[in-house]
Amino acid sequence: MRFRSLSPDAGFTMVELLVVVGVLSIFLAVAGPALSGMVATQQVRAASFDLHATLNIARSEALTRNSSVTVEPAEGDWARGWNVVESGGTVLRRQSAYPRIALSGPARVIFSGDGRPDASATPFAVTSTDAVTDSHRCVRLRLNGRSVIDRGTC
User: How many Cβ atoms sit within 10 Å of the Cβ of residue 120?
Assistant: First the structure.
């Protein structure tokens, strides 16, 4: 059995490989800033959805237990995360912080046993410095305790 030797024109040359790497690096350099904005937009959406879900869970727990349940910022700052705490002090749920997200809202939200929030429930503004203004979200609490997410600033 005879083995064939590789001919010199099989495969890629070093010049061709360097041209492909150069073209790919140019594409990545152009697409990089757009990708960081997209990541920031997705983080704003995820944070607003998680806050919306947390408010719904807290309302549901207040109705189930027929006692007050509080949603409060971790370490006094909503951007560092938040906790759902029952009236006895037991933490029912913890949400960790989102990097590069600015979140502002009331000092805390207390749901009574009938599922209604206290009167101090102002809207939550979820923003990011890297995202475009259209991607900002506003999480509002209705008087019946249900939360809604609106696009744009509060």
Answer: 10
Measured CA to CA in angstroms, residue 47 lies from 36, 41, 95, 138, 153 at distances of 16, 10, 10, 11, 15
> What distance in Å separates the CA atoms of residue 96 and residue 149, rounded to the nearest whole number?
20
Reported as a single tens digit per residue, the pLDDT across 115-150 is 999 876 689 999 987 766 678 899 999 888 899 999
Dihedrals φ, ψ of 49, to 5°?
Answer: -65, -40
Q: Distance between CA atoms of 62 and 154, rounded to whole angstroms?
A: 26
For 86-105, the pLDDT digits (tens) are 998 999 999 998 888 899 99
141, 153 Cβ separation under 8 angstroms: no
- State how far the Cα of 54 lies from the Cα of 104, in Å rounded to an integer: 15
CB atoms under 10 Å from CB of 57, counted, come to 15
Question: Looking at the domain 14-151, which fold is it?
Answer: minor pseudopilin epsh fold (3.55.40)
Q: How far apart are CA 48 and CA 138, in angstroms?
A: 8
